[in-house]
What does this fold into?
Amino acid sequence: MTAEDGDEMTGTGTAGAEGAGTGTAGAGDTGTGTAGAGGTGTGSGLDAHLVVERGAFRLDVELAVAPGEVVALLGPNGAGKTTALRALAGLTPLTGGRLRLDGAALERTPPELRPVGVVFQDYLLFPHLTALDNVAFGPRCHGASKARARAQAAEWLDRLGLAGHAGAKPRRLSGGQAQRVAVARALATRPRLLLLDEPLAALDARTRLEVRAQLRRHLAEFEAVAVIVTHDPLDAMVLADRLVVVENGRIVQEGGPADIARRPRTDYIAQLVGLNLYRGEADGHTVRLGSGQTVTTTEELTGPVFVAFPPGAVTLYRDRPAGASARNLWRCEVTGLESHGDRVRAALGGELPLAADLSAVAAAELDLRPGAEVWATVKAAQTHAYPD
It folds into this structure.
């Protein structure tokens, strides 16, 4: 195969892309595997225990994903998300654990022979090839004739709404179009595992909104396993059926998007979903925090619990309110202010560190500024307590 055919590269190395090994140039589409490794039939899905040690860092996560399910690995920078994705693709060797896909052990399978498709953050399309030939690259690597590979590529471009751009080279494509070409290239090899690394990070805000909705529709039609790596909670919650939150190489929480948003279990997750979160000991409707402060809730619980409430549930006063109906009252000090349009978020320290959201008008009327003393109240009905 020649560069002019769009097939000059083998699955073992590519145009400067670290992930080439997955069967295509640059990993943007590695779909790889052998010719019969893909397919649209269902299997047992992904069963993985990924253990990777690199210096002082250790990744140790277990993933079980059913065919047709979309899982998002969510976490801060350095949590181990990308290491997990590279381990699944075969680009980073496992130190221990297991990796099975549809019942087949892949720990010793070279990247180029795995039925895996990868879409990396910057897409890594071949700049000298048309969109059609970029997508046809994978099937050609798997032995399809040039005509057959291009027919398959044309079908995928049509499915992703790019039939009119088949002859365009990457530099002529918008960010959203390039992203869809990369997805088409990954899917053209009919992978049993689709990996997407920050698939929307390279897009501007307007394009991101449109492409996010399109990608969700395509993922809903994908019959095999899909794993997304992202640090963006909105991408994760819109695209995935289930979230797996990774911090410091470990899974700290997993569940459906609604459950994660309602019941965060770490400060990182609480910040992502915009909640004040505390851990304490419940006795009936009262939760005593480690700081000695208490929070009154509507739930009646006993033992270790989390208690959370949104910044918008906090009402601020410059003077201690007389006869306030809120059951929770704390004396605080403003430590910072951030403006978001016509809203202001106040960071508070003092008896109970928390965040409060209020209108810019209210902030001005209260004369909020760093160092100002305020009273914060929260109604019990606006708190949410749940077992630790």
